[in-house]
Amino acid sequence: KFVLDFFFEEKQNLRFDVYNVDTRSSNLSKHDFLGQMFCTLGEIIGSPGGRLERTLSGIPGKKCGTIIFTAEELSNCRDIATMQFCANKLDKKDFFGKSDPFLVFYRSNEDGTFTICHKTEVIKNNLNPVWQSFTIPVRALCNGDYDRTVKVDVYDWDRDGSHDFIGEFTTSYRELSRGQSQFNVYEVLNPKKKGKKKKYINSGTVRLVSVSCNPSQPTSLHYMSPYQMNAYAMALKAVGEIIQDYDSDKLFPAYGFGAKLPPDGKISHAFPLNFNSENPNCVGIEGVLEAYFQSLRTVQLYGPTNFAPVINQVARSAAEVTDGSQYFVLLMITDGVISDMAQTKEAVVNAASLPMSVIIVGVGPAEFDAMEELDGDEVRVSSRGRFAERDIVQFVPFRDYIDRSGNQVLSMARLAKDVLAEIPDQLLSFMKSRGIEPRPPLPPSPAPLHLQPLYNLNIWKGRSFQPWLKSRT
């Protein structure tokens, strides 16, 4: 496929020469000429369904076959998606081995046909392959139509090019953009086997491991709308604005996880949002939000979703202050199912002996069942035979708190009330376990030098506000 600019008012002549490639040489004389065809771009676009079929010519006395063109107007979508897939229990196709699977992605055309838009690499001798991530323009995948069918074929690679068909499945970009969830686990079906075998179930499954979408597109949970906050910002603001009242300096270290960082594209699961490793602090929750939005313009979001690095990062800080003078609350907001559960359990068990709590807010439609393992309300988190000293994790899915009327303020209030409810008891459990007694209250501040009554003369609902006193020094 290739892209051409179309001008209705101009005659755009095209010539197509077809060759059989014999060598890697770019010199056409070293390849076999198969035929040629002349037309205009307008002829292709003006054909029924944008499909033009013509006979090749150019070799006297020989039939050269036909050439078929399909044309489709490209959308102005400039979004780019990065995806990674894996498979499980694919059919064995090789007699002396397993299978050498690869995926072929097809974009559906307006006339019901399909066009190849991407092929993955081949994974040799593996029925449970994990393919490398790839980046593709959304325009190439679905022409910017998020609901257009995307077909994926699974093949077993053969050296002679006669690749064995394992099965297929269909999806859409809208489904893929939902991320890692039960909705993006696909049965690989072989229609021929399904018709012949009564007990046939499938030829394996393919699962979306990760997807990162441009935050500028509305399907992204990080979408920066000019009219309302996204779910990440709502969760951060809801919890942060309450808990910041208990912080003396209002400086909050803020980290991101799951992104490729400039300039070399290195993947990080614990990077400061302000990109200052020496001082990751942000001033107030507004400063955290500002750093978050700025980082979205700088990094490329990327899976998998690893929690352990950030938990360990905060735990190192908490381990330096165990005298009861400070208590750390880590708020983690994620739209992905956790990918490093074993490492995260280990991190939680270790952190349970430190002055810290972990709040996890899940946003989006993903299935967060695995997160319940970390919320030790019923069963204490354990790792390698060790149980957490106390329950320090609170998990909630944000979708459970969204007000049906769309009232963001009410949604945020509901979320904050639930996720912060356990923090006082978790703080007390640590202090009691270490025998730390409450410190005496600080003495009151010195009496002000002068007191002057100030009056608010604004009228509200027909009545004046009462006067109050304000110190003046």
Automatic annotation (TrEMBL):
InterPro entries with a match to the protein in the record: C2_dom, C2_domain_sf, C2B_Copine, Copine, Copine_C, VWF_A, vWFA_dom_sf
GO molecular function: calcium-dependent phospholipid binding; metal ion binding
UniProtKB keywords: Calcium, Metal-binding, Repeat
SMART domains given in the database record: C2, VWA
Domain of life: Eukaryota
Example GO biological process: cellular response to calcium ion
GO cellular component, one term: plasma membrane
Sequence ranges assigned to domain C2 in this UniProt record: 48-186
A Pfam family hit: Copine
The family this protein is said to belong to: Belongs to the copine family.
Name of the protein described by the UniProt record: C2 domain-containing protein
Species this chain originates from: Astatotilapia calliptera
Gene label: CPNE9
